[in-house]
Amino acid sequence: MKFNVNQQDLQQALNYCQGVIEKRSTLPILSNVLLNASNSNLTITATDLDLIFIHQINNVEVIEEGSTTTTSSIMYDIIRKFSSGKKINLSLTDVSKLQVESEKSIFNLNCISASEFPLTDENFNQNEFSIKSKQLLKLLNKCKFSVSNDETRHYLSGIFFHQTQIEDKNFLTAAATDSHRMSISKIRLDRQVDFEPIILPKKTIFQLCSLLESYDGDVKISNIKSKIKFELNNSILISKLIDGKFPNYIQVIPKNNQKKLEIDLKLFLDSVDRVASVSLDKKDGVKFNLSKDVLNLSVNNTNSGDGKESLTVKFEHDLEISFNSRYLIDVASQLDGDKIEIFFNDTGSPALIKDPGDFDSIFVVMPMKG
């Protein structure tokens, strides 16, 4: 195996691989990336057995076709320290040594035979649909912060994706909750698709986000019983799904929250962020004291002190309620409009948050017992 590749192309591909490969893998081969050079393409594959990432670099000068595997983190560390955009020459000098050469540097990296790399081939093609990369990224970003970290309820540690219908319109809807807060967002599909409801694991979500941030185009999605496949231009991500039943989240959406608070988004975000600074662990609730057109925010921490701030808002009622500041900041950071709308019922009931700039997303936040 012998080929030349551009430094930036290789660095980007290996950077994506870092998100897939487990740092403390028990199997040495799982710390490696599979490199396959053929037909003027270099294909790089990384896996942790639950997630497979395949990336293809085109227009590679392949002098001799072949494949091998080498330690992903070491190779990435070397490649990113080479001069940007330069040509890198790679060759398999013997079965267990990969020579990496650029400008005046030469490295010889240990290899494990490509035949030991675990690859699974599955037929996904029976049900496939496409959506725009930016739309999929929107769904992931609006929901990912509400995913649960609680290992005991594994079915909450991912985003629930399913197809919904409203009147005659079809949507791909995403929902996530950690039982303290919930995000729901949807995007319009141009037709009804053949798509079984799935729960996408957290690691896959973050890997997919990093791919989508630098890609503008269509994403092809296909799923079979326990796996899902995302195809981008030069990358494929195949992931196992979370086995479990996502709760009926529709029941949790407050139905009778009539008290509407309307406020400038940036003012609100900055204000909550400032007031929460007095609490080191952000566990102290930020207290809302609402009266007509005035919101008084306050945080009180027994160890460090207290902070308060007053904002002019649109509100017609009197209400006192407390929230975890982190939850409010997470939601507010994902809104698209200039304003935030929060609908309340009473002190002990969940608040419903809407984004006037995006009618397809809603958020629910439980109050803290103040």
UniProtKB/TrEMBL annotation:
SMART domains: POL3Bc (SM00480). It is found in: Cytoplasm. The keyword Transit peptide does not apply. Residues 131-248 form the DNA polymerase III beta sliding clamp central domain. InterPro entries: DNA_clamp_sf, DNA_polIII_beta, DNA_polIII_beta_C, DNA_polIII_beta_cen, DNA_polIII_beta_N. Its main location: cytoplasm. GO terms for molecular function: 3'-5' exonuclease activity; DNA binding; DNA-directed DNA polymerase activity. Keywords: Cytoplasm, DNA replication, DNA-binding, DNA-directed DNA polymerase, Nucleotidyltransferase, Transferase. Residues 1-120 form the DNA polymerase III beta sliding clamp N-terminal domain. GO terms for biological process: DNA strand elongation involved in DNA replication. SUPFAM superfamilies: DNA clamp (SSF55979). It comes from the Bacteria. Residues 251-368 form the DNA polymerase III beta sliding clamp C-terminal domain. One of its GO terms (cellular component) is cytoplasm. Forms a ring-shaped head-to-tail homodimer around DNA. Confers DNA tethering and processivity to DNA polymerases and other proteins. Acts as a clamp, forming a ring around DNA (a reaction catalyzed by the clamp-loading complex) which diffuses in an ATP-independent manner freely and bidirectionally along dsDNA. Initially characterized for its ability to contact the catalytic subunit of DNA polymerase III (Pol III), a complex, multichain enzyme responsible for most of the replicative synthesis in bacteria; Pol III exhibits 3'-5' exonuclease proofreading activity. Belongs to the beta sliding clamp family. This is Beta sliding clamp.
